[in-house]
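Here is one chain, start to finish.
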Amino acid sequence: MPDFTGDLALLRSKLEEARRYLHIDDLIARRPELENAAAAPGLWDDPDRARKVTRDLSELLEDLELFAGLESSLEDADTLHQLATEEGDESLAPEIAQMLDTLVAKVDDLELRSLLGGEHDDSDAVCELHSGAGGTDAQDWAEMLLGMYQGWAERRGFEFKVDSVSEGQGAGISSAEFTISGRNVFGLLQSERGVHRLVRISPFDSDARRHTAFAQFKVVPFFDDVSDEVEIDDKDLRIDTFRSSGAGGQHVNVTDSAVRITHLPTGIVVSCQNERSQHQNKDRAMQILAARLAALKRAEREAELAGLAGDYMKAEWGSQIRSYVLHPYQQVKDDRTGVTIGNVEAVLAGDLDMLIEAYLRWRRMS
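Its structure:
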């Protein structure tokens, strides 16, 4: 009978670590408070607070259930191992090994939580895509990336919502703003911030030559309450309405109620054209503006402390964080972590988890 004692002890140690970084004891203590708040008769008199309470309770229960399930599975495996050892029953070894393999995979996945301890890592994410060098190919590439992040969101069970799209000249998109909502989305998407490079035979070149195209991805945390991090003076805003068109026919609802807000002191422009009314589009645009202004404030503080001008990079040669090569070979390579993946099609369909996990581990070691 194989001795699984060491494997069981290692898993038990990892679960104790998980108890600490998941703050299980704190969650148990906080559970009655959240359950009482969620059951309060007037909860939905304040919809923003109600959404926060219900979301916090849902995440708390999810963590407690997940941890309890892992503890129970580990005890089951330990009990079965003791039984098989006492009876010398080697026929149970494959079953025990399978139980431990499953537990290891689940605990390793759970360890990602320990890499997401940033101030806003648990927030939803406001994302931007901008085509860079490469002309029509770059605009097509930006649209491909939009599909990639939508695919990633759907695979993870997150909500994906396009807020605005600017069509490209001839193909693709020149830019897009979209929001991904779900647990730890902003923390996970830290890995994607930067310039993405595509190498392929251009479908827009009649001579079928190889072209390189670039697009840039930006992400900031989303705030339900505009006043959470920044104060916005109405006098600093120019608000315009327009009709969405062009690429919006594919990505957003075409309406007459689209809203564009310009923040005059900074020149930041945001727009929203996917809600049902002008009022809703304005509220959504204000939330996106708040997220971008908060990110700008943080970047200015960091640049001042570091004596740097910020981390802005042009979407062109030499600035990429990751390359996607479709010709003459098939490969995705992250220039920071060195991780390479041969199945480019899967990555472009949204299978980003290996790249994201590698980045989070690399960041912690850097």
